[in-house]
Structures are given as structure tokens and as C-alpha cells.
Amino acid sequence: MQRREEVDTATKTADEATKSAIATKREYEKKIEMADEEKEQILADIKKQGYDEYEKIISEAKKKGEQIIVEARHNAEVENERAKEAYAAQLTDMVVDAASKIAATKHSKEDDMELYEKFISEAGANNE
């Protein structure tokens, strides 16, 4: 009988150990499942942060690009006005010079025509 009690006690101890192992396994599996869910949530959060950062960078780049275009247009307009003013100043100088030459000489219709042709020729060369 003593042997039987020992066997029963050993069996009972083994059953309890098995139940404890199964419970521990279930607890471990739940922890793994929770860790997987947490991992997926962290990955989703990181992806969202990355997308938000991407959108922010793209938005800032577009704004900066638009600003550069506005500044370039303004600079082109200013440069165009300067070029017009310089051309007008050159043209004025040529007209004054031609008028001075005409006034300083005796002139005939042929001389006037020759000066006019020379003026047009010089104006065309300076414009190029």
C-alpha cells in the first residue's frame, strides 16, 4: 500500500506539474501575442510619423520652391527694367551725339541722310 501511495503521490505531483506547465505556457503565449500586438502598433505609429514627416518636408519644399520662383520673377523684372534704362540711356546719348554733330556742321539733305544711316547702323550694333 505504501508503494501505491507513493505512486499516487507521484502521479498527483506530475499532474499538478503538467497543469502548472500548461498554465505557464498559456501565460507565455498571451505575453507573446501581446508583444506582437504592441510591436504592430509601434510599427504603425512609426510609419505614421514617417509619413507625417514626409508630408511636412514636401510641403516645406513646395513653399520654398514657390518663394524661389517669386524671387526669380522679381529679380528678372528688376534686371529687365535696368536693361531698358541702360538701353534708353545709350539711345539718348546717341541721339544727343548725332544732334551735336548735325548742329556743328553745315548740312545738306545728303549729309543728313548719311548721318541718319550712320546713327541707325550704330544703334543696331549697340542693341545686339
Overall description:
- The protein is an all-alpha fold.
- The chain has one domain.
- It is built from two helices and no strands.
- The chain has helices spanning 2-104, 109-127.
- Helix 1 (2-104) runs antiparallel to helix 2.
- The chain is rod-shaped and about 155 Å long.
- It starts with a helix and ends with a helix.
- The mean pLDDT is 86.
Entry summary:
The chain is mostly helical.
List keywords for this structure.
128 residues, mainly alpha, 95% helix
Q: Please tell me how large the radius of gyration is.
A: 48 Å
Q: What's the tally of helices?
A: 2
Mean pLDDT: 86
- For the record, the count of structural domains works out to 1
* Approximate shape: rod-shaped
The proportion of residues forming helix, as a percent range, comes to over 70%
Strand content: under 5%
Distance between the termini: 125 Å
Tell me the major beta sheet.
none
Q: Give the uncertain stretches in residue-range form.
A: none
Sheet/helix structural class: mainly alpha
Give the number of DSSP strands. 0
- Give me the strand/helix succession: HH
SSE arrangement:
Layout: H1 2-104, H2 109-127
